[in-house]
Each structure stands twice: as structure tokens, then as C-alpha cells.
Specification:
Four copies of one chain form a homotetramer.
Chain A lengths: L4 E2 L4 E6 L5 E7 L9 H11 L16 E3 L3 E2 L2 E2 L4 E6 L21 H8 L15 H17 L3 E9 L2 E2 L20 H16 L6 E8 L13 H10 L4 E6 L10 H4 L3 E3 L5 E3 L7 E2 L2 E2 L4 E7 L9 E4 L5 E4 L10 H22 L5 H8 L1
Antiparallel strand pairs in A: 1-2, 2-3, 3-7, 4-7, 5-6, 8-9, 8-10, 10-16, 11-16, 12-13, 14-15, 17-18
Chain lengths: ~375, ~375, ~375, ~375
């Protein structure tokens, strides 16, 4: 329950603070025999790296990953894979002021309540840089899934009031714009909204959507360990997430059974399929063979330059303007984080699901 | 990871199928010394019991709980508390037809994919009766929380298009109507909507909201084991839940930082407080001392009498009308389930949080 | 960590006290499709049942098991299997005296320290009757292992000073005597030793040995989750166990590398084999394809009629003679408990080991 | 269950191979506020470092530890503590030959069976260097325990045929000799035995004993999570351990109840105490306030220069002489490893035990 480990068979343990020496992750239980290079992981880290557009913090970090263990002769050995990214652009001086007060919308106050004191430099462990470990591990999980013909793809679904339509976009367009929206017209509107936020020293929120294709039916456990429940936890464990929904989600609450039920039918291939996918790919918490679709709601970046009221550690009401190098929106860089949390969750549960039938276990050991 | 156990220090294991001999739960790690009677638990079970209004299944079950272990001289001993409810109204005959096809919106197909076959009587393990174990355990957790001056209260927030306003309702009104809505006027509209659904052989969804008061600041772990993440998992593990949000949730995604950040201020008592609670009581996933507020979206009951298209196990497209004794809406009876999942989660994390500071551990063992 | 659950994929949760209403276990994660009847389990429970010889407590218990869930149409469904044995021969009156003092060698004092009070009737949760849940669950695990051609067999290796020789005995002889020793001559000597103990109002200890045949090489995880480490935990979690050793065990500490190393050689079949088995079937904590052999040391039954010194709850030094119905030795009835703990551990780790290679995972999902 | 993580509230994840870039550990759940420097940890690492006597491998390693996260302003923050030791003396060339055959007594064969291939340089993950992570983490646990007035001390109990007497030795003498035996006369004999082994190109085994003082009564969980069971697992997870015993251990199996039971009596201070300690400090698996005493049996170092028979990967019987830099005995350097595994286990269970009573939880949150 110590908070930094996730997963049952594929277990991930992250560590590191925003302005410490390094950030890292240990992946344990990774199946042996996967070809793995630092470049495989770097590609994912580059997607979350700061400094890539006017909407991300100008902090410069290479975020170059080093594989410290678990790979031999270019393949995973089955033993723990330790990955590390050195922090190179720490500017602790920026944060000395923060030590004395609680930033609204941040974890400063709650960490102090929990631990008695905190690493106040750049948010310490509660910083968005903590997601480096998630992404590095998720890159490995995604590579394994791709070997199983399963793809995980996330993208920006909405920014402030600008939302794209699920049925209309082109995923290949996503990386053509600064907001990772796979719809060029919507991306232009979203960027305009963000420019307005920045002008007002403000920030805004948005929604990330994720689609998983190729997942076999039958993945997920009953009751507490539903695939959907574990995805909810994995996604809601990302710093700024305030909501999770799968399939029609909250819209299902306003729907009728006759609308929301997905009719089954036989495909010409003899496979069972569904005419619609209001369920988002799970029935009873177990994958049904359709695309798995879920969304995560991100709150606006809490660090804003506009003046805000708060209290200091001397118990005085004060007004502050949070300085530092912050993104006006979290969502575009969070896309890859959501994708990675999904990959880790799905792979772990897929591995667990291998033991659900005696006949298959018998075949496995024959 | 076997799916029917939840929790780290307070661990809950449920078992039982809709039409099996009994349903039960084992609570392990319950602190010793809590006065506990079957009546304490029965009160909660009665809140989810069927047959209480025209909107719940007419299946008659007493759902009388029996304490089989873990209580001695009227108090919990610290060892496992085994609770059992005998099923008395099984009518397996009702379900023989279901064995041969997959009900839309149900877990029939996914269980068959996962396990190779399934207990088809009444949904077996995927039935709503599985929540009896959750509620029986949650009653114990809620009693412990109340000894710590922490209260957990859930209620119907919306049914179909009818939603109540958080700031206007009166919780004491909740149990005055058949839909557990703490707003008499809204309840009348909701009941009208449900009557229409029933008339159309249809069903509808809704939203349950839950408020936890009295929770100290500092509960929850960083990173993967955030209080909010564990609540998301606990809530999304309930059968028909398709979404979870905390505080402003999805609305926060459309908000600005200047709106969404909750300003801190000093209370006259010298305590730190927040002027608003868009965060819903967690910052960085750790409780901030404000009310914890979250919502769960429930899909419409999948069992409807209206004709639906599906496939049978012979691989044929067929049209079915799901018979049996079903609720036209899940939400009113799910209110207590949400409350219980929240109580279990919060208590477990509160117990875990006792070890976060060395000075407090030293005091504890002095 | 709540103490009554064991296992990762095959998870077992036991509950119940010596003089409570019932004793039981929930097995979660049992693979679907195993034919299972109450008789399969009863055979194992009968092996640990009291009242079978003059060396076991005369307490009469049928220990009849009831399957409450998880089996449908005679086969396991993959969902939790709840098993219950009603206590029928409680005699709480016997134990009222014990409430006021701490029996030497028992857990009375430590339970009071931990929980503030205890169920003093028959030892409550710390009673040997707690092993009913272990045996009921182990019977299911053993049945699955037998489907995989893996057999687990334990027997009495020594009683007091009487020890049998591993290479000389005949397992089929084991159940021919009251002490479960597979060597008729040694059994006679052991029974004589026990008769002497009884005459002296005393008790004695012994050693149980267990052999697992047919286990494939490659089961067990590196580092903390070695197969040997998990067997050590499982075995040392049995009430009166004070030691565990695998292969040559403590004798290896007095050996030389040249003696203790097992030479590999090629069998005519082309398989790798070992000329000796000092290792006891594990190398680096992972099964090597040889027989797995381990031993458990049991202390003498702590309840003896001979007078002993202790203290009462008023803080006075007193002399007591422990009454009640107790075995003069634990070992013969513990044989099946050791066997069951081994079966549970081996099966769980075998299931976990299915995910150690990417190529095998790919084949599994092809 | 991925094998490299241990612990419930205090969770330790180790990583790294013998000849990889580095070895490390992540400690999660460490209470906040502990003063911690690299020197605190280095002292422990130096105790297991090679090259300190003629009985340890001449491989030169500084084993200098680096704290990468979790410490701020000289104190632990409550977030993960990442510790790393760079490997500096890798000589992969030494091991190229080993790639083609299976060393007797090593994990070469079992790793190949499990993973399909292995890192053959220096044993990879199955090397004794893996214990660096255990020791680094154990140093932190031991420091916390010392703040709670609990001390953990291990030492060499026997080497080959030379055994010391528990009641006669002087712990302060331990580090005065090359074999960590707290009895100067026995140490001389032990060294003579080792010299003989070396002369014969052979190796030998031994026993490590560990004593924990100051542990309060009431630590440990019932049933599967007994303190003794978790110690057994922790100790048996160390590479070369073949046996574990607590208190009188295997000797208890040959004892009588009247001898083995420890009589309780009242101390003048009003505390309950025991006249003897055959139990080794646990009753029912829960600490009884006496010294906790246990032993671990270590097999002889499997790497010996004397010729041995084995097979190669082409399936041929061959004779080998294992080269490389190896200790003729594992025990002296393993002493600190045993101590650290005990410290980690005891601290974790002590933290867990804080939640066993409702009255104490209420006091904690008052």
C-alpha cells in the first residue's frame, strides 16, 4: 500500500522528486525475451517532455533515460528493469518562497498535514515530473502489448469549451499540432482558447480520451478487480485527474436501457460482435472484445500568475502570484501519461487472466 | 489480484452467487474492541433489500445476516469477521432460458469468454446480489468511522433527466421517498420518469453522490494510492457504474484555474480552511480536511422486457425479451452500496496513514 | 496484510474460532472447470479430524464441509469458493477458567497484548481448529495439482527421538498406523514414546516431511518470492511450527561445497537431471525439476496436565494444570495441514510463473 | 508477486545484476522525519563488502551508496527513497565460459528453464550482489527501529563443525575476527577450518543467528501473517539459505511439553515475563516481549575450484572447475544481510500492528 507501487504480476515502482537528483522507475515482472532499447522508451518520454510548444513549461530537460538493469544482450531478462532519468534543470531558488505558504490547488498543504513537512522545491514528489516513471514503464508495457497486436492510443478530446467528435477525427493528425488534438480545425480553436488563458495569466482544463484496440474478450476479474475499476484507479492516480468514465460514462446515467444496451450479432467470420459500443468495451468489468474507450477529466493547472488568496505557515491570510515555469494546460502532455497508465493496467490484467481456466493451464504446462 | 478481495489493512473478501446457497463476506483486519451486533449490519442490508417500492424487483429476500466469527462478548476480536446471508428466494427455473443466449448489457458473454462457462442462474456472481457482501462489510466500516466522528452519506443525485442541486437539499428527506432523493419535489419528478420507463418496458440510469464529513487532512498516499484513486476503483467496481468524479469532476475540465482553485484562509479557530471546495476534499490525492464529495454514474438496468437483438450459443442472431424480477433502475438501491464502498476505502486508507510520520509512531509505542 | 489471506493469484482467506459457530475459508482465483464435490474436500478434512486414535483429542467433530458458492453443475466457476464447517462440539464451559490466566506456550498472552482482550474459549482463533480452512482449501489445490500430474505427500518424519530414514520407507504404510509414519517399525517405537508422554501428563514434538513430485523446473520467482521462501512462510504460519528446512537444510550448514552441490547429468531421454538432491528441488529459489523435499519442526503440544507456573490477569504468580481435550502430539494430525499449505503455495506460484516469458504469453493468446 | 518487492506498509523493491551498471533499491512507505545520510547506509554496506579478509572474494568494490530521492534537508520525506550503488569492478570476460554450461549448486539451470535465457555474467540477478539492495534498505529500517529502542544483531553461530554457545559469547567481539563470530576461541577454530577448505579448493556452510531486543509484545498477525512466518520467508529468500528456525527450532521437535513451555511470572516492576525462552520470543506467531531469536542455515558456497560434473547447453556431460572470485564461505558476509532482512520484516509488521485496536486508533486521531 506504500503508494508508489502498482500492479500484481507486472509491478511498477516509481520514485523521485521534481528537483531531486533523478527520477526513476523499477518494472518488475516484465516477461523475459522482449527486445528493448533506451530508444524504445525515449520516444515515449519525448512525448511528455517540456519545452515543445508555447503551451508547455519552458523548463529545459532532455529527460534522457538510462536502463540500469534487467536487459541483457538487448532483451529483457525477466528480472527488474530499472530506468532512470537525471534531473538537469533544477532551479531550487525559484521555490524558496513556496516553502512558507500553501499554493491553492496544490498538494502543499496536504503533504504538510500528512508528513509534518515537505520537499517544497517544485512540488517535490507531487510534481508532474513524477509521471516520468509512469511513462518510462508504460513504454515497455505498450511494446509488449504491440507484440500481442494490442494498441493503446490516447489524444486530447477537449480543451476548455472545445471538444472533438469521436467519430470524425484522424488520429494521424494528433501530433501535427501543439495540443495533441486529432482534428485540425478543433486544434486551432483550442490553441486560441489557450492563448486567451495565457494572456489572462490563467489556465484551463480538458479531457483526454483513450482507445485500446485488439484486446481479447475475457480480460478483467469479477467484483473488485474489474478491468474498468483498475483503469479508473490508474487514471485517477494521475495528478490532476478529477474524473473517469468508460464508454458512455456519465451520459449513460441519462440514457434508457433500450438505448444503452449494445445488441450482439454474429459476424460473417462467426465471431460474436456488438452493433454499438455504449459499454466502452467492458461488460461486468471484463473486456468484451470491442474497443475499450475511456476518458479522463483534468482540472486546470493550479499554478497561475494571477493573484490568489491563501495562507502562510505563520497562519496569516496572504495574496500570492505563483511564479515558476508552468504549463497553462496539463492535457497535451498528459496524453501520453494516460496512454501509459492504460497500457500498464491492461497488460497486468491480461497476464493475470491467463490463469482463469483449468483447461488452458493444463495446455500451458503440457 | 483474485478479484474478490479489497483493501490493505482492512481487507474484505466477498463470495456468493445470486441463486447459490448464500452470499457472504469476510472482513479481516477489523480493529478489536468495536461493539458489533447483527442488527448494526442488518440496518444497512435493509437499505439495499429488494421489494421495498414499485421500482425494485419484487423478489422477496429477508437478507438476514448471521455473524459467524470474529465477535466475542459483543465486541470485535481483531480476527476475521465472517458474515453470511442465506438466499431464500432462488428461482432457478426462471433462468434456464438465459443459459443459451447472451443478454445485452450483461456479463453473460464476457464470463463465458473468461471462464469457458458460467453460472447462468440470475447472473451468478455478476448479479447485483453480490453487493450484499459489500454492504455488510461497509456497515462495519461505517460504524468504526462514526466512532472516529467521520460520517459517510450517499443519496440519489439524479435519475434520468431529473437532478437535484447540491446546495439545496435536506438529507433527512432522503428516506422519505422511493428513490432516495433528498429533495421531495425532485423525487416526484423522478418517480414520474420511472413510471414512464416501466410503462415502456424500459429502464433508466442515474447518478449517486456521496459526502464524507469529518475526515482529517492527510489521509491518502502519494502517486498510485491516492485516496481519490482508491475511491474511483472502489466505486467503479460496483456492477453498473460507468463513471466516477470527485469535486467538480468533468466540469473542472471546462473550468479555468482562477475558478477551480480553492483559496485557503485562516478560520477564527486558527485552523486552515478553504473558501470553496471545487477539489472535493482532496489535493494531490490526499484529504484536505474539507468534505469529500464524489459521484458515480450508473447505467440503466440492462434487463428490460422490451425486445432486443442478441445471439445464442449456437451462433444465431435472435430477438429476446429478458424476463425475471428486475429493478427498472439501479440507483436507489445502489445508494447504500456506494456509501459502503466509500466507508471501506476511507477506513482502510486512514489506518494506513497512521504510519506516515516517525514522531507519531514513536508516540504510539511510548 | 490482514493476517488471514494468503496467495497472489490463488488467494485463500480463512476465518473462524475453535468454539464459534463455524470455521471456513474462501478460495478466490481457483481456475474454472475443475470438477469438485464436497467429498473431494471431506477426504482431506477427515485426515485432520480429531478422535481418530488415542493420541488425538477425544473432542468429537464431524467436520462436515459445505460448499456455499463457486461451484455450478459440479464444476468450479472461477469465482470465490466458500467452504464452511459448522462447529458442533463446543464446550465453552471447559474454558471459563482460562479466561483469567495465560497458559504457558499458548497465544493467550500475546493475543491479549495485541488486541486488548481475547476469545478465550478453546484458544479462539489461535486454536488448531483454524487449520480446517487451510485443509479445505488445500484439498482443492491438491486436486488441481493432480490434474497437472503433480503430487504432494507429507508424513511423520520423527516423533520425539524416533526418526525414519527417507530412503527406506513405504508411503503406502503411512495411514496404517496412528502416527502417520510410513515405517511400521518406527511407528511402534513412536507410539510407545507417546504412551509414555501421556502417562507422564506430558506431550512431545516431532517433524513432518513433505515431498512434491512432478513439479516442472522454472517455478518460483527470484529474490523475495522464491518458491522456498514462500514454502517457509506457509509452513511456519502453521501454529506450532518452530523450524523449516528444504533439502539438506541445517545439515547443509555443516557440509562442504563438494558434498552439497548436486551434479547435473544428461538422462537418456535427453532431459537434464541431478545425480543427488541435496538442494531439495530448488536452485536459486526456483524449482529444478527434482523432487521438492522439505521438513517442518513442530513443538510439543503446549496444553499439558502436569502442573505449570504462570500468571493470572490480576498479576499473581499461580500454578495451573491445563484441562480440556488436547492431543499429546500435534504432528500426526498436522501432516495433512503441511501437505495442504504446500499444495496452496506451489499452485499459486505455478500460476504466477505462467507469465515469465513473452514467447509463451504470445502463444497463449494466439 | 513480481519477486523483487517485499513488505506491506514498508515496501522494498530491489533491482540490479552482478555485472550490470548498478544495483539499487527503492524503499517506499518509510515514515517521514528520520534523519538520514548516505553514511548511515554506508556503514551497513561496508559490513557486507567484499575484499575484507582472506575468506571473501578479492573482487574490489567500493559499494558507495547514493541517495537519489526521498530525503530533503537531511530527513526522510515519506516518499520513496531510491538508493543506488554503481558496479565498478565488473569483469564480464571471466564469465563467458559459464554461458555455455550450468554450474552445480547455482541458479543457472533454473533461470534458463524459467526465462528461456539468462544474464550469465556473474550470476546476473541470482548473484550475492543482489543483497546490496537488501542491506541498504535494512540500514534504514534498523535506524528507525533504534529510534524505537529496538535493536537487531546477527552474528555467525557456526561454521562447518565449529559452533558457539549462545549463553557464553560477547557480541562486542564479533567484528574483531574475519568470521564475525563473537567468541575469539571459536573464531580461531573456524578460521582453521576455512583455511583447510580453501586448500582443498572446497567451500563450507554455516549458521547465522539473530537476536532482536526491545520488541514490544503484540507484534505480528494471526494465521498466515505470523511474525515468525514472515521472518522465515524473509530469511529463506536470501540466496543460499536452506533452513530457518526460531527459538529452540528443530530441537523443540525432540523436546517435551514440560520442557519446552516457557513459564510466565511477574517481574517486580509488575510486568509479565518468561523464565525461559524456548519459544524464541513469539507465541502464536505474535511477539511476547522476550528477545526474538532465530537462526538461518547457509549452504556451502556453490562455486568451488575442485572439478565437478555437469552438463552444457549442447546436452553433453562435462567436467568443470568454476573460476571467478568467490568467497569460500558465505556466512560472515551474510550476517548483515540476515540482520537487515529481520529489521525490514519487524519494522513492517510493527507498523501494521498499530491498527489492531480501536481504542488506540481513536487515541491516535484525537
Amino acid at each position: 500500500m506504500a503508494g508508489s507501487t502498482l500492479g500484481t504480476l507486472l509491478s511498477v515502482t516509481t520514485w523521485g522528486e521534481s528537483h531531486g537528483k533523478a527520477i526513476g522507475v523499477v518494472i518488475d515482472g516484465c516477461p523475459a525475451g522482449l527486445p528493448l532499447t533506451e530508444q524504445d522508451i525515449q520516444i515515449y518520454l519525448n512525448r511528455r517532455r517540456p519545452g515543445q510548444s508555447r503551451f508547455t513549461t519552458p523548463r529545459k530537460e532532455n529527460d534522457a533515460v538510462e536502463i540500469l538493469s534487467g536487459v541483457f544482450g538487448g532483451r529483457t531478462t525477466g528480472t527488474p528493469i530499472s530506468l532512470m532519468v537525471r534531473n538537469t534543470s533544477q532551479r531550487s531558488g525559484d521555490y524558496s518562497e513556496i516553502a512558507s505558504y500553501y499554493r491553492p490547488g496544490h498538494a502543499d498543504y496536504t503533504y504538510d498535514c500528512k508528513y509534518g513537512f515537505r520537499d517544497y522545491t517544485g512540488g517535490g514528489r507531487s510534481s508532474g515530473r513524477e509521471t516520468i516513471g509512469r511513462v518510462a514503464a508504460g513504454a515497455v508495457a505498450a511494446k509488449i502489448l504491440s507484440e500481442l497486436q494490442i494498441t493503446v492510443a490516447a489524444y486530447t478530446r477537449s480543451i476548455g469549451p472545445v471538444t472533438i467528435d469521436y467519430d470524425r477525427f484522424d488520429l494521424s493528425q494528433m501530433e501535427q499540432n501543439a495540443v495533441n488534438m486529432p482534428d485540425p480545425k478543433a486544434a486551432v480553436l483550442a490553441e486560441a482558447h489557450l492563448d486567451l488563458c495565457r494572456k489572462n495569466q490563467d489556465s484551463c482544463g480538458g479531457v483526454v480520451e483513450c482507445v485500446i484496440k485488439g484486446l481479447p474478450a475475457g480480460i478483467g476479474e469479477p467484483c473488485f478487480e474489474k478491468l474498468s475499476a483498475n483503469l479508473a484507479k490508474a487514471v485517477c492516480s494521475i495528478g490532476a485527474v478529477k474524473g473517469f468514465e468508460i464508454g458512455d460514462g456519465f451520459a449513460a446515467a441519462g440514457s434508457l436501457g433500450s438505448q444503452n444496451n449494445d445488441a450482439f450479432y454474429m459476424e460473417e467470420t462467426g465471431a460474436v460482435a456488438k452493433k454499438t459500443n455504449h459499454a466502452g468495451g467492458v461488460l461486468g468489468g471484463i473486456s468484451d472484445g470491442s474497443d475499450l474507450i475511456f476518458r479522463a477529466a483534468f482540472k486546470p493547472t493550479p499554478s497561475i500568475s494571477a493573484p490568489q488568496q491563501t495562507v502562510n505557515k505563520s497562519g496569516e491570510d496572504i495574496t500570492v502570484s505563483v511564479k515558476g515555469r508552468h504549463d497553462p494546460i496539463i492535457v497535451p502532455r498528459a496524453v501520453v501519461v494516460v496512454e501509459c497508465m492504460a497500457a500498464l493496467t491492461v497488460l497486468d490484467m491480461l497476464m493475470v487472466s491467463m490463469t482463469s481456466r483449468l483447461d488452458r493451464i493444463k495446455n500451458f504446462f503440457r
